Amino acid sequence: MVADCGVSEARAAVRAAYEAFCSWREVSAKERSSLLRKWYNLMIQNKDDLARIITAESGKPLKEAHGEILYSAFFLEWFSEEARRVYGDIIYTPAKDKRALVLKQPVGVAAVITPWNFPSAMITRKVGAALAAGCTVVVKPAEDTPFSALALAELASQAGIPPGVYNVIPCSRKNAKEVGEAICTDPLVSKISFTGSTTTGKILLHHAANSVKRVSMELGGLAPFIVFDSANVDQAVAGALASKFRNAGQTCVCSNRFLVQRGIHDAFVKAFAEAMKKNLHVGNGFEEGTTQGPLINEKAVEKVEKQVNDAVSKGATIVTGGKRHHLGKNFFEPTLLSNVTQDMLCTHEETFGPLAPVIKFDTEEEAIAIANATDVGLAGYFYSQDPAQIWRVAEQLEVGMVGVNEGLISSVECPFGGVKQSGLGREGSKYGIDEYLELKYVCYGGL
Ligand code: NAP
Predict the structure, then answer these.
(1) Stretches in the chain below the pLDDT threshold 50
(2) Does residue 299's CB lie within 6 angstroms of at least one atom of ligand 1?
(3) Residue 275 lies in a domain
(4) From CA 409, how far away is CA 417, in angstroms rounded?
(5) Hey, whose CA ends up nearest to atom 35 of ligand 1?
(6) Is 319 in the pocket of ligand 1 (CB under 6 A)?
(7) Ligand 1 binding pocket includes 218 (Cβ within 6 Å)
(8) pLDDT tens digits, 197-206
(9) Which of 403, 78, 122 is nearest to 247 (CA)?
(10) In which domain, by residue range, is 108 found?
């Protein structure tokens, strides 16, 4: 059972966060750091229960849920360290009797809206940075995953993080629009941080515009995965499996389009299909050996099905999979398509499911043109053994994150975010805390 909050609870949460901000901002960085560290320790102590909550909420395999909890906890550990490393500057201007100082101060209350696919990691990545900076937060988790957000709040409270600093307002999908609008337009809120679809992100940007709030947006992607002739096939297949099928294809950095050069194409497709059959096991997330759980709901299955049917009707070939899985209405078979062309839906619409479409190409220029022919740019991957080509392609891909001969790129130490309509700002890393800090210039005269 979980509360279904409405606009009045959302406003009350913002008020509580604002009141808590007035004292939280005065807490020393060392003390904030130590509270975040205690929260991290509690996450580690309770990691098994937290992982089970995530699997129960979303169906993802327990092993992946464990991985997510560790990844989430590491954000708290990281930002507990970064909290003590917020520095300012002193600038010497031409005026001899003045000094210029730059202070970094917390932005204020942050409204945080998160998706269901990495419920815990999306929260700690944002809340860890916000609290480290001295901000307080109101979190609206996705309808499907409120329990992980509430469990994190319980642990935050046990860690000694004061009431009002981290507030959660779970709400049903029917209330999401109003609750989202209430927290994103409230004058007491100074910052909006959102992870989710580009469509919702644009709505929230409109909300932010009226009162000119700071925004961070982590939105959808359409990641290209390019395999050049010089690539090592085994490495490329391992990377393709990892980047495509994590969380059954439901991550924003999942490869969406495979571009494979003519010379290596047949070998790659054959090895990829064999690896999929050998390594991917669809099943109940709680069962040992399951690598692919259900999709989040039947609508998600319909989207994959529609993309497969569209591709096949336009000439694509099903190499493996291609239909719903007999386990139930929310399951879809891991699917590999070849002979894919750019007029097919799956090459320009984010799939968010276990579908790998392969497009054949001839030249590097052609691959880059296809990869960049989209208005989003989150992650991109490519496999090549040619050092000059590696530099050229890494620099030319219009994305925020590049995996070179690597399919798994996320790490708390590295900046996560996209270009174009994939978002604004970066999370994690030494840059993530800046999203919650204002610069104040102080001109100190009379020297
Ligand atoms: P979504 O539909 O945009 O939902 C994300 C969150 O926004 C949920 O909490 C949702 O609430 C809420 N929401 C929906 N409509 C809203 C509105 N009008 N006003 C305020 N809040 C609203 O996205 P999703 O389906 O959960 O997640 C999938 C998308 O997220 C994909 O496009 C994926 O690429 C992207 N994503 C991006 C990143 C990244 O870091 N760039 C990471 C993960 C996912 P309800 O759950 O109640 O609908």
Answers:
(1) none
(2) no
(3) yes
(4) 12
(5) 196
(6) no
(7) yes
(8) 999 999 999 9
(9) 122
(10) 7-219+422-445
